[in-house]
Design a protein that fits this description.
The complex is a heterodimer of chains A (about 160) and B (about 700).
Chain A lengths: L2 H12 L2 E2 L13 E2 L6 E2 L8 E6 L4 H8 L1 H7 L4 E6 L3 H8 L9 E3 L5 H7 L6 E2 L1 E5 L5 E6 L4 H10 L5
Parallel strand pairs in A: 4-5, 5-6
Antiparallel strand pairs in A: 1-9, 2-3, 4-8, 8-9
Chain B lengths: L1 H18 L16 E2 L17 E5 H6 L5 H5 L5 E5 L7 E5 L7 E5 L2 E2 L3 H7 L8 E8 L13 E7 L6 E9 L3 E11 L4 E12 L14 E15 L2 E16 L6 H6 L20 E3 L6 E3 L9 E17 L4 E18 L2 E20 L2 E19 L5 E3 L4 E16 L4 E12 L3 E13 L4 E12 L17 E3 L5 E13 L3 E13 L2 E8 L5 E7 L4 E15 L2 E13 L12 E11 L2 E10 L4 H4 L22 E11 L4 E8 L14 E2 L5 E2 L11 E9 L1
Parallel strand pairs in B: 5-8, 25-29
Antiparallel strand pairs in B: 2-7, 3-4, 5-6, 7-8, 9-10, 9-38, 10-11, 11-12, 12-13, 13-16, 14-15, 16-17, 17-18, 18-19, 19-20, 19-21, 21-22, 22-23, 23-24, 24-26, 26-27, 27-30, 28-29, 30-31, 31-32, 32-33, 33-34, 34-35, 35-38, 36-37
The chains are: A alpha/beta (about 160), B mainly beta (about 700).
Chain lengths: ~160, ~700
């Protein structure tokens, strides 16, 4: 494994970051339009925590996430999953038609300029796949770079449970 | 680029992991997770591509939303970008960036420049935008490392790579006998290869608004086709693209019976009394200098321009890695352009070849990258003209340019990645103009996660050619005397401030462009024997254009985004340089409402007054209407509106109806684009507004 690869591997492990542990969790207030234009989606919506999966049709890891989406939702049934496409509308429609999207999964449109929101969420380079888990109060709990697997989600959900 | 961002992000992630409790997850192996830089393809106006150089992106969504069939239609009506029509008879169009002449805009496909002055004159109407991923626009000299002649900036078309089976069919029809049909097919052939096919047919009749039987909008029939092949072998990827265009256009005398029009060289089929300030006689006009009545007697051909264009091009790129730190790229392109033209009884036939080749390496060291490369450009033109009396003139504007060049580029970040710096220098040796050095430097400062500044300073150069650039058409001239000693050079400074969050995206910019040794074509000169000759010279003083522009897009409702933009320009130039009028200011408004199965797009563009007296140099060459009255000193403020409504019958099938220039504003209602000089000689270039009125169209689109 080359030096660069080892470097990336270490960063991949560190890429799943729990934000909190006593410090004030950052809040990034934003709203995204639902894909059908019927309303807004915010991190504070819903009862429990939520995970925003940012994806693009040219991102292989993102497509693996979409293929595993049903299993992901079953892993964390109490967690709201939001898919945020950074692709064109045509590509989004075409790609999503290839996968089974659970009814509970919300589809959101890309922001005006994805870079701005991604940078606010800690992804200034626009790397994908990228996921952000929000606590029930809407604060950023976990950021994850790379494919979001069931293991990642399970652990993230546990980390984002409100402390009693 | 992608490697840079991966390392950049990995570094920042690692930095975060040091300062916050890292979360160890059971069961996660220490494998590399594949990360990809987001394509960020779904941009809206006001947003910038994530590049140091200010790059605006028009996505495939935006292209389809405005109903664009070619690159001119896709780019028009955006702040800082416009399409300028330079002839009311043949409708030659150029893309102007920062309101600089269109010849200073370089068009590339996948980063390969293959458009010469010959191919750009009418060719941009034939650049298909179906099968396109997006269009990138970078304004300012030095915007492109490999195209230093882009004095105003660069337009790059990115070919779409299919990820699976895809098909798009679009068929539409509209007023003025407009018919359009486009098919796009794409598929991944196996795990390594993908391919796409694009074919388009466009047809439209000409339009005569003012009833004088001379068209203001040129009719055309156009066939465009292309094939693209993509290969992906892990560290090595390749792309091959082949394109072919066949276009016939004709303006002036109405109709597409081109052979008959060309053969008609006597009589008067027109009515010169029609239109604003028409002549007192349908048979001709009185010369403003009092020398008498000029009866038109040159038939349909004498007022017609018929251009047949064929173009074939091939380009390919291969990119790979020697190691994780060292990448390489090879690019090659070839284009052949053939043009058979008929300009008011003069025939002009030209062939042009272009060759481009490039080899470069990119080395990564930490966050820094170093790029070095060489490239070679070849461009030629060979023409034969035949004057109305049958005299043949060989090589009137022939040229051959060979330009080997080398370049180096450096990139690094500072101050915890808040500052990104990119610098480069090119060395070119043009076969006519000798050694030329083009430096540039770009800064990107991240004020916050949402706010950034970009500053670019650069120089570019262009080897001028005489074909159609300075004066549309070289008519009735026997020779061109070249008094060109230096290439045209441009010094550019641009600053852009960009803010973007979840709902708002704003970009405001200032651009300074100064062109030295501006090439001029004077087709009114004569030699000692009184024969018409053309002088190809250079301006004594620089041409300076400064511009301010702002573009804002706001997601007002979940289903509605609105955009507003404005631009203001300041010009300093000597007569004869900026030879076509430009507005001082423009305003842009658009809205995109998308809910349920409906998608409604509408835009309004308001064009400020244009100083016609100054741009058209009335002081040295006054312009008159056919009734002897003076042409307008200043054009009026006017607004045009476009709207398109689509309805999705299913996820795959949608119907659409639209109208361009909804309120039917046409310059020909206010002022004829035709004009006569003091002696009564006719020309076709008094252009400041739309020359086609409202056009309603509809169609069906199938996307699988």
């Amino acid at each position: 494994m080359s030096t660069v690869s080892r470097f990336l591997a270490r960063c991949a492990l560190g890429a799943l970051i729990a934000v909190g542990g006593g410090a004030a969790a950052p809040r990034v207030d934003f709203r995204l339009a639902r894909a059908d234009g019927s309303g807004w989606i915010t991190p504070q919506d819903g009862q429990g925590s939520s995970v925003f999966l940012f994806w693009d049709s040219a991102c292989p890891g993102c497509l693996l996430e979409l293929a595993d989406l049903q299993a992901l939702q079953q892993t964390v049934p109490a967690m709201r999953i939001v898919l945020v496409s950074l692709s064109t509308r045509e590509d989004t429609r075409r790609v999503l038609a290839q996968y089974t999207i659970p009814d509970s999964t919300l589809l959101a449109r890309s922001p005006m300029n994805p870079r701005g929101l991604l940078a606010q969420l800690g992804n200034g380079a626009g790397a994908l796949p990228f996921a952000v888990v929000f606590s029930p109060d809407g604060s950023v709990c976990v950021r994850h770079f790379g494919q979001t697997t069931r293991t990642v989600l399970r652990s993230a959900e546990a980390a984002c449970r409100p402390r009693v | 680029m992608s490697c840079k961002y991966i390392l950049l992000q990995a570094a920042s992630v690692c930095a975060l992991s040091l300062s916050a409790p890292a979360f160890a997850v059971d069961g996660i192996a220490a494998d590399i997770e594949t990360v990809t830089v987001s394509a960020q393809r779904n941009f809206r106006a006001g947003a910038l591509k994530d590049d140091i150089i200010k790059t605006e992106v028009l996505s495939a969504d935006q292209i389809e939303r405005v109903g664009a069939l070619n690159i001119n239609q896709a780019l028009d009506n955006n702040p800082g970008i416009s399409v300028q029509v330079e002839c009311s008879i043949c409708n030659v169009r150029n893309v102007t960036l920062n309101n600089l002449p269109g010849r200073f805009t370089t068009l590339t496909i996948d980063g390969v420049p293959l458009f010469s002055s010959l191919s750009s004159a009418y060719g941009l109407d034939s650049v298909n935008v179906r099968g396109v991923q997006n269009i990138e626009v970078a304004r300012g000299a030095g915007a492109s490392l490999i195209a230093p002649e882009a004095l105003a900036g660069l337009v790059n078309i990115v070919t779409r790579k299919p990820a699976g089976p895809e098909m798009e069919l679009d068929a539409g029809a509209g007023e003025y006998n407009m018919y359009n049909g486009t098919v796009y097919l794409g598929d991944a052939l196996d795990t390594h290869w993908a391919a796409s096919l694009t074919a388009s047919y466009n047809k439209q009749h000409g339009a005569d608004r003012d009833g004088n039987r001379v068209s203001e909008f040129t009719g055309f029939t156009r066939y465009m086709g292309g094939v693209a092949l993509f290969g992906d072998f892990g560290d090595t990827s390749m792309k091959l693209r082949l394109d072919y265009v066949d276009e016939k256009r004709g303006g002036g005398a109405m109709g597409s019976d081109y052979a008959a029009i060309r053969a008609s060289d006597s009589g008067n089929p027109f009515d010169w009394s029609q239109g604003p300030h028409g002549s007192s006689s349908p048979a001709g006009w009185y010369a403003p200098d009092g020398s008498g009545f000029i009866a038109y007697d040159s038939g349909r051909g004498g007022m017609s321009e018929i251009i047949f264009t064929k173009r074939a091009s091939a380009l390919g790129t291969v990119e790979g890695k020697f190691s994780d730190a060292l990448e390489w790229r090879i690019a090659y392109g070839y284009a052949r352009n053939n043009q058979h033209s008929f300009y008011e009884l003069t025939r002009y036939n030209a062939n042009g070849d272009q060759v481009y080749s490039e080899a470069s390496v990119k080395y990564h060291s930490g966050k820094a990258t170093f790029t070095a490369g060489i490239n070679y450009r070849y461009e030629d033109l060979a023409s034969i003209s035949t004057t109305p009396d049958g005299t043949q003139i060989h090589g009137l504007d022939n040229y051959v340019y060979r330009t080997p060049g080398a370049f180096i580029e450096f990139y690094d970040t500072f101050f915890a990645d808040r500052l990104e710096l990119n610098g480069s220098v090119r060395y070119d040796r043009n076969s006519t103009f000798g050694t030329i050095v083009s430096p540039r430097v770009n800064f990107l400062w991240h004020h916050t996660a949402s706010l950034s500044s970009r500053l670019s300073v650069g120089r570019g150069y262009r080897a001028p050619t005489s074909f159609f650039e300075q004066d549309h058409g070289i008519l009735d001239t026997t020779k061109i005397i070249r008094e060109i000693n230096d290439p045209e050079t441009s010094d550019n400074l641009s600053y852009a401030l960009n803010y973007s969050d979840d709902r708002l995206s704003v970009t405001a910019s200032y651009n300074f462009n100064q062109i030295k040794h501006f090439a001029l074509l004077d087709s009114s000169a004569t030699d000692g024997d009184g024969n018409a000759i053309t002088l190809f010279t250079q301006a004594d003083h620089p041409v300076t254009v400064q511009g301010l522009d702002i573009s804002t897009t706001y997601q007002l409702l979940p289903s509605l985004s609105v955009t507003a933009g404005a631009e203001r320009f300041f010009y300093a130039f000597e007569p004869g340089t900026l030879a076509f009028s430009r507005p001082d200011w423009k305003l842009y408004f658009s809205g995109d409402w998308d809910i349920g199965g409906f998608d409604v797009f509408g835009r309004v563009t308001v064009t400020g007054p244009q100083d016609l007296k100054r741009f058209y140099d009335y002081a040295n060459n006054p312009r008159y209407n056919f009734d002897g009255s003076m042409k307008m000193d200043e054009s009026p403020i006017f607004a045009t509106a476009d709207v398109k409504v689509s309805y999705a019958l299913t996820d795959e099938v949608s119907l659409y109806i639209g109208a361009n220039n909804l309120f039917d504003y046409n310059q020909a209602d206010k002022e004829d684009p035709l004009w006569i000089d003091h002696a009564g000689a006719l020309d076709v270039t008094q252009i400041w507004g739309p020359l086609l009125g409202r056009q309603v169209y509809g169609g069906i689109r199938i996307s699988l």
